[in-house]
DNA sequence: AAGTACTAATTGGTCAGGCCAGTTGACCAG
DNA sequence: CTGGTCAACTGGCCTGACCAATTAGTACTT
């Protein structure tokens, strides 16, 4: 309840500062940044720190580092990074709502294209999921495989990637603890049943049914999630390194 | 047509190696990695290099670095980075197809929720776009504002982010040059007309119409893009640092 | 015996300075 | 004007060191 300190690491601050200068247009697209040594001097930090900050921006796709030449601004907009520290603006419900909208459309499209091989892939994920409802990590993996498997039916790599990214977003430390109170084989089995309904609708070529089943699944997922609210901030232990690692969150 | 040379930077190689160990499960989720000093020794590189590699993985959301404690595996799946070097598996058409599916659903949803303020925001983007059809960079910015503006109507931060990310994906060096041959005020004006149709349907609360208009827009965008094929590999110059920076790609 | 306060080892964060390799542009010979 | 050389950047990587946060162990108190 206390300390908002945070004490961000220095290279993060430097990265933020440069990112801001790019976003504001102070550093135009295509322009070359000052040399690492100059940046270090201007910002009063060491060169390694500047390098680490620039690597962050490079991974984010904002700048392009060319050896021996310089560092160039590639794009202006953040192209936000998937993992790590996202602003808590995107809450669990927001994420699930977005998934509902997008994955419903994907399921609808998939229903009209599914071939036997695709269904077999979904079945494999379902079978695997059913066998590991007691393993919090393995069951998440099977869950993920099912959702990305539906996107794979459409045969579009971008859709597969986006679906996977949205799924992975709940793995963040922030999300991780929220659902640890209501997880269990029982709720996983409920999720599995909903998965089966989706699978059947897609296998039958029922576009509307697949869309409805997916919406029902994510709605139920949201409800399971909301039921865990009100108690998630009860205990603040589990900081030790030997405790259970970050488990899953909501069944989807 | 020649040199595929690459000579990946060392810290990239280290990052790839660790990423692989995580993906293969050799480093389990929640597990603590060896200390930076140990990793440096085991990999026969210096500690700064290890640090840079770990920062890459942290930005990607794969690991969680805790000062004084250690480095922990957060998730197993790549959660692919948005910018930089994506596999060329995702081509322009794949991207546009994915956008068609997702943004149509968003437009459909937005039509039922749009308030006067939202429409005003879209109009602002349209006006701005009309005024800068000759500025390849500024027009892209207005284009982006329109598409994310539609997502904003739904009021979901995740949707806004995903829409923006997909838009930004064409800024990559790979995509950038592809469309430089057919860009121009004329095609931008066509895109602007299609935008207006989408705006009108949303303003009228016509969900089906908004969906159709968005689909038409992205289909046309795809067509404009395909017309530029067959000639995009004609000239390979424009490497100089003072040339025009990466311009836009397809009008959307 | 249990809990607490303190201490020491471990680990990431930052810095300084240096050398190497690739890039670039100016200069010079043909 | 063409081609090659060369020197001045610029990023890539390294060594070694110190600081700060965390954590585990220990001695002390209750």
UniProtKB/TrEMBL annotation, chains A, B:
Region (Disordered): 226-252
PROSITE patterns membership: HTH_GNTR
Gene3D superfamilies documented for this protein: GntR ligand-binding domain-like, Winged helix-like DNA-binding domain superfamily/Winged helix DNA-binding domain
UniProt KW keywords: DNA-binding, Transcription, Transcription regulation
Pfam families named among the record's database cross-references: FCD, GntR
A GO molecular function held by the record: DNA binding
Top-level taxon of the source organism: Bacteria
InterPro entries xrefs: GntR_C, TF_FadR/GntR_C, Tscrpt_reg_HTH_GntR, WH-like_DNA-bd_sf, WH_DNA-bd_sf
SMART domains per record: FCD, HTH_GNTR
Domain annotation HTH gntR-type: ranges: 8-76
Protein name: FadR family transcriptional regulator
Organism: Rhizobium leguminosarum bv. viciae
């Amino acid at each position: 309840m206390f300390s908002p300190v945070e004490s961000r690491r220095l290279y993060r601050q430097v990265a933020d500062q440069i990112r801001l200068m790019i976003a504001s247009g102070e550093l135009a697209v295509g322009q070359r940044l000052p040399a690492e040594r100059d940046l270090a001097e201007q910002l009063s930090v060491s060169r390694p720190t500047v390098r680490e900050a620039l690597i962050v921006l490079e991974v984010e796709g904002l700048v392009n580092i060319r050896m021996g030449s310089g560092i160039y601004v590639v794009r202006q907009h953040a192209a936000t990074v998937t993992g790590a520290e996202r602003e808590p603006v995107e809450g669990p419900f927001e994420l699930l709502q977005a998934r509902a909208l997008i994955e419903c459309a994907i399921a609808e499209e998939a229903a009209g294209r599914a071939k036997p091989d695709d269904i077999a892939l979904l079945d494999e994920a379902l079978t695997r999921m059913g066998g590991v409802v007691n393993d919090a990590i393995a069951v998440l993996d099977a869950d993920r495989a099912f959702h990305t498997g539906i996107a794979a039916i459409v045969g579009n790599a971008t859709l597969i990637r986006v679906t996977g990214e949205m799924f992975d977003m709940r793995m963040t430390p922030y999300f991780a603890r929220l659902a640890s109170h209501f997880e269990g084989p029982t709720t996983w089995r409920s999720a599995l049943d909903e998965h089966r309904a989706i699978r059947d609708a897609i296998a039958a070529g029922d576009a509307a049914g697949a869309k409805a089943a997916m919406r029902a699944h994510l709605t139920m997922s949201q409800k399971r999630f909301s039921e865990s609210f009100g108690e998630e901030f009860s205990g603040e232990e589990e900081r030790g390194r030997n405790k259970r690692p970050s488990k899953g969150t909501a069944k989807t």
